[in-house]
Each structure stands twice: as structure tokens, then as C-alpha cells.
Amino acid sequence: AWQILRFYKVYTMDLAVVLLRLFSATVCPALDSGLGTLLCNDTINPVFCVFSCPAQQYFREDGALKNNQTVTCDIGTAQWSHVSAHNPLGSFPVCSELVDPESYTLRTSQVYTGSNTCPENAALSTALTTTLTDKTDTAYNCLDTAVCSIPAPNVSCSVNGTSIIISFLVQLTAGDLSSSSLLLSFRDQLGKNILVLSVGSARRRRGEEWTRHHSGGARRTRAAVSLSSSGELKSEVVVDCGAASGTVGTSCIVCVAGQYKEAGECTECPVNSYSSSVQSTECKPCSGDLGTVASGSDSESDCTVMCEVAPLTGGLRSPAVGYRVWASTSISTYCNTNHSVEYSTSNTALCRSPTQPSCHKMCTIASMDEGAVGNTTAGSLLSYKEQIFYTCTEDETNRNLTCSEAGAELHVTCTKESPHSYTIVLIGAGVGVLLVGVGLVVIKILKAKSKVAANLFEREL
After folding, report:
1. Which residue spans within 150-224 are E strands per DSSP?
2. Is the CB of residue 316 less than 8 Å from the CB of residue 77?
3. CA–CA dist 367, 381 (Å, integer)
4. What is the C-alpha separation between 60 and 181, in angstroms, rounded?
5. Is the Cβ–Cβ distance between 307 and 351 less than 8 Å?
6. Which of 32, 51, 386, 431 is deepest in the core (most CB within 10 A)?
7. What stretch of H or E contains 107?
8. Burial 411-430 (b: 16+ CB within 10 A, else e)
């Protein structure tokens, strides 16, 4: 039963898609995968495709590294999910390789007890380095193997009530730089273990105890202070990708042509600009009135004459109305139900064409006489300017009908001619001729009478 149900679901789903395709004129536009690959499934609605970067290549999206992108297209609207005014042709991200960073830096801040006074920064730096490089403790191999270091000027201290907060940097500049795992392990140990620092000097605070040393004179120093970490640790790992690469989390990705480096990240060149080389720090604007169809252009040849997709009533266009595309872009027009483009007119045209196809309401065959024979039936629809031909069986005459007015109701008729109609016409014609003749005779009589009366008048004179 489960197999039957599964077959029924799959069959009905496929049948629904087939029927949708049969009764829908829309077609999802073809996509260009560039240097990547594109795998699509067009047996379901919406159609979906998965774009994948080449092996070991990635792109940045929402601050993270990704190597694939899934997009969908509704058969009813012919619009891909990733298409927008900024990406009207549905381009995919540019994939790029990862490179090792120049260094990783761990920034830490940790609470220490044992004093409410901050030691001198130099003394703190010495104490931290001595403690963390103690060979008897292998928890901090990053420093033990000398691939990490604590830069002295980057150690600082601040008072936190009855305790202090020590902040310092640990830099990973050598060894395996393909990941920050060694530095992250160091951080985990720093938060897990209790670190005890023995600091030999500090800035004097009023009222504190001092010790005396006598070596050629009196010299007062503060007694050594023992500080213990409380486990409260705040940290972040910062990566330095150098001039040629951009930061994505703790990874470095090469900034390729079509991008520029801004605020440490590889960013696509804005619309109407381009960069044609790697390691670009800026994008060049297109000259004059030329522009690019989307962001991320990598060549000056992408700057060309632009065109805005024309408005449309009664349908939709792909790319959509209002999008700015190349003037040479082919625009497809899809009309709503009971609408169509003009008969024998293509639904596609270049954006730069003087006119784009329009959608007109279709004519309806409202009625059809029994004696009319042709390739149409009552209720059929005709495209605007479409013409049909039919034959009337009684008199064997061939006739035609044209949808000359959008949305009109048409009637396929075969008007019957009455057998008496010819007689009536002949009689009417005869009567007409007779009346004309009588009129002429009357006119002649009147003329004659007028002539006689004139003669009599002359005689009397």
C-alpha cells in the first residue's frame, strides 16, 4: 500500500508539472554557470538548480565561505529566486581559492585575583611569557614551539573592583598557517586551566607594604605579587590576510578580477564599474553613459549601452519590467490567461528594439452556426489579429473571421438567403424603374403645358 501511495504521489506530481507546462507559455530563462557546474531538476515545480564552484574554490556569502548555491524558478512566473534589479540575468558568484594568511592574532582579556593593583605592563609581559613557556607544562605548545609570541607592547591591565583584568595578544606567525586550530587550542587551555603569574614589580599604591634592599644604599621595591586567573575569558581570533586576499571569518580568499578589497574583505565592484586584475583596491567607473548589467564586472568590455525593460500590461517580462540590462539582451514576454501577443508576432525581442511585444485580450468565439465547418468551435479563443477560415455547407461559400478588436465576441455565421428574396428584389427594382418612368412622363407633360400657355399669352398680346 505504501508503494502504491508513493507511486501515486510521484505520478500525480509529475502529471501536474506536465499539465502546468502544457498550459503555461512561460519558460524559465537559461542560466550561465560560468566556470562552475549547474545541476537542475525541471521535473518539479518550482524548478531548482544547484550551482557548485570548482574543487577547492569558494565564495563569500553572509560573512561565511560557501561553495554552492541553490536557486529555484516558478514555472508560472519564469523568475529565478536569485534574480533581482542588481542581478537581472541571474549571474552566480565568482569562485576563488583560499590562501594561507600572513598571521593569526588571538586577543584575550582575563580576570585575575590576588591584587587590585595593576603591575607594570613590562613586568606582566615577562610573567606571562615565563609562565606560558614553562617546559613542565605542555598545555601551551603554541608558545613552546616558538611559532607563537606575545608582543610586549600589547599587554595591558585594568582594575576590576577587587581584581584586575589582563589583556594581551598572542600571534601565530610561523608553522602551519592553513588554519587557526593551534591558536584556538591555546585559547581553550587558557580558559580551562588556572594560570598563576608571579609578577616581581608593580606601581606603588599608598599604604602598601614595601621591602628594603641594602646594596650600597637603601632601595625600596614592592614584594612579588601572585596572580591567579579566574577562568573568565573573553577572546577573538583576528586574521591578517595581507594585501592580495580578503578575510572571511578566520580564512583568507583571493580577491579576483571583478572585486576589490575594502575593509579587509573582497567586495564585488558596484554596478557600472569594473576591475580587471587581482589584488585591486578600487574599481574603475564605466565611461560616458555606458554601464554594466550587474555588480562584479571584470572587464571594461562589460561596460556597454544599457536599456530598461519596457512596461507591460496583462503579463510579465523576463528579465522583469524596469530592470536595466544590456541593449542586446533578449526580452521574453509572457501574457496572462486569455491574453496573447499579436498573432504571428514573436514573444521575444531585443531590449533595444523600438517596440516590445504587447499583451492583448483574446477574442472569444461566442457562437457558431450549425452549417459552419472549420478548425474552430464555440468557446475557442483567438489571438489578437488572428484570422480563421470556415465553409458554409448550404451554399459552399468560403468565409473568414478576424480578431480585429481585442477582447471582442465573435460569431461564426452562415446567413441563409430566402428563395423569394430574389423575386422581391426584382419586383422592387421593377417598381422603381416604373416610378422613374412615370416621373419622366409627368415632367414632359408639364413642360408641354407650359409651352402652350406661353404661346397663348403671346397671341393675346
Report:
1. 156-160, 163-172, 196-199, 210-214, 218-222
2. yes
3. 12
4. 21
5. yes
6. 51
7. strand 103-113
8. ebebeeeeeeeeeeeeeeee
Question: Any idea which residue has 545541476 for its cell?
Answer: 39
Residue among 87, 82, 85 at smallest CA distance from 72: 82
Phi, psi of 119 (to 5 degrees): -65, 170
For the stretch 103-125, what's the b/e string if a residue is b when 16 or more beta carbons lie within 10 angstroms of its beta carbon? bbbbebbbbbeebeebbebebbb
Q: What is the DSSP letter of 304?
A: B
Distance CA 103, CA 172 (A): 6
Residue 430 CB partners (closer than 8 Å, separation 6+): none
Angstrom distances, CA of residue 59 to CA of 20, 248, 259, 386, 392: 35, 9, 12, 51, 69
Name which of 10-24, 175-189, 374-388, 441-455 the model is least confident about.
Answer: 10-24
Cell 452562415 belongs to 414
pLDDT of residue 157: 92
Count CA atoms closer than 13 A to 254's CA, side-chain side: 12
- In terms of average pLDDT, the best of 232-241, 340-349, 449-458 is 340-349
The HSE-up count of residue 280 (CA atoms within 13 Å, CB side) is 22
Number of Cβ within a 10 Å radius of residue 89: 16
191 phi and psi angles, rounded to 5 deg: -80, -25
**pTM for the whole structure:** 0.64
Q: Rounded to an integer, what distance in angstroms lies between the CA atom of residue 363 and that of residue 336?
A: 14
Distance CA(421)–CA(313), nearest Å, equals 49
Residue type, 138: T
C-alpha cell at 128: 606571562
The CA-atom distances, in angstroms, between 108 and each of 22, 159, 189 are: 64, 16, 12
Residue located via cell numbers 601565530: 172
Q: For residue 322, give the DSSP letter.
A: T
Q: Kindly state the greatest CA–CA separation across the chain.
A: 183
Q: What Cα–Cα distance (Å) separates residue 245 from each residue in 251, 271, 296?
A: 10, 22, 16
User: pLDDT tens digits for 320-342?
Assistant: 999 999 999 999 999 999 999 99
Tell which residue, 48, 46, 50, 57, has the closest CA to residue 33: 50
Q: Do 167 and 109 contact (CB within 8 A), yes or no?
A: yes
